[in-house]
Design goal:
With 322 residues, the chain is α/β, with parallel strands linked by helices. It folds into two domains: 11-218 and 306-313, Spore Coat Polysaccharide Biosynthesis Protein SpsA, Chain A; 232-302. It contains eleven helices and eight strands. Strands 7-5-6-4-1-2-3-8 form an eight-stranded mixed β-sheet, with helices on both faces. Bound molecules: uridine-5'-diphosphate and magnesium ion (MG). Residues 101, 103, 105, 206, 211 line the site of magnesium ion (MG).
Length: 322
């Protein structure tokens, strides 16, 4: 091997893996083939996020087959996709780093396109999925969250959901210095980037296995996105609070005057109930929202590690880059 390898490969691919035994064999075949075709030095950092199926065994086999180009980080438990990617970043040594889902929704054959843009000097290559192949509710949900994010956060990305993205070393270093526990990597990277660009890429159906995101975990993830990049929701509540307080002050004055002129009245009780229930709902939502922020502050101040690595499979024969 040439001297370049000793100081790290040109390209690192980071792949989070959580219960993906059904797709891994095909992923290995297509991913290594498309990287070999690029003819640059590369490594693939697989991060096993506490899989309970045969994924680890398959990753070990693949490591044995291609030890020079393969590194496997094994988590001690399930810490979530974004933590897995952060771990991948801290182990990746490449000048360019590309993240990829294991499920082949983003074709590995598109990697060359991203590498091309990174080589041109862009430090963040975002992607826009062409003909997105996901179920309808997922597409509608994404569209709504995309709109909300555009309005209330400083993050400007067209398609936040797609994880196949390219990052230059400078951006990866900045990400590695970020100590946020709950984060959303593409958004964070877009903020750190100085020369971002977006490219359209193909999108396929999940090759096999099932999506790891339920409606619930998707909502949790998107709370990370919104609360992590904006306090507008909290400010909105102070505005709503002010508006309601002003309106009710006017109502009190009006009712006091009526009491003096018309005398005691009892009609319209149900209208009043309606208004009160609505306001209680708004208040509860506000408390919940406050809780989202407070919970994240709590997670942050505890300073527990973002993930715990049980073992790393890597080939040391070339001399490790520190
Ligand atoms: N993933 C992970 N940890 C998790 C959930 C998912 O590492 O807790 C990985 C998963 O193996 C896949 C990627 O994150 O490589 C994206 O997951 P998935 O395809 O299920 O998400 P979707 O495409 O439905 O958004
Ligand atoms: Mg997927």
């Amino acid at each position: 091997m040439n001297a370049l390898v000793a100081v790290g490969p040109k390209l690192s691919i980071v792949v989070p893996v959580y219960n993906e035994e059904a797709v891994l064999p095909t992923l290995f075949k297509r991913l290594y083939a498309s990287l070999d075709a690029l003819q640059i030095s590369f490594e693939i950092v697989f991060v096993n996020d506490g899989s309970k199926d045969r994924s680890v065994a398959l990753l070990r086999e693949q490591f044995a087959r291609r030890p020079r180009e393969t590194r496997v980080v094994l988590f001690h438990a399930n810490f979530g996709q974004h933590s897995a990617i952060m771990a991948g970043f801290s182990y990746a040594r490449g000048e360019f780093v590309i993240t990829l889902d294991a499920d082949l929704q983003n074709p590995p054959e598109e990697i060359g396109k991203l590498v091309g843009k990174l080589a041109e000097g862009y430090d963040y290559v975002g992607t826009i999925r062409q003909q997105r192949q996901d179920v309808l509710w997922r597409r509608m949900f994404s569209r709504a969250i995309n709109k909300l994010r555009e309005r209330i956060t400083p993050v400007r990305i067209t398609d936040q959901g797609c994880m196949m993205r390219g990052y230059a070393r400078s951006v990866v270093n900045a990400l590695n210095h970020t100590r946020e526990i709950n984060t959303f990597i593409p958004a964070l990277a877009a903020l750190y980037a100085m020369r971002p660009i977006e490219v359209p890429i193909a999108h396929e159906e999940r090759h096999a296995g099932q999506s790891k995101y339920s409606m619930y975990s998707l909502i949790r993830l998107n709370f990370d996105l919104i609360t992590g990049f904006s306090v507008v929701p909290l400010q909105l509540f102070s505005m709503v609070g002010m508006a309601v307080a002003t309106l009710s002050a006017l109502l009190v004055v009006y009712l006091a005057v009526r009491r003096l002129i018309v005398g005691p009245e009892a009609e319209g009780v149900f209208t009043l109930f309606g208004v009160v229930f609505f306001l209680i709902g708004v208040a509860l939502f506000g408390i919940g929202l406050l809780g989202e922020y407070v919970g994240r502050i709590y997670a942050q101040v505890r300073e527990r590690p973002r993930y715990i690595v049980e073992a790393v499979l890597e080939d040391d024969s070339e001399g490790r880059f520190q």
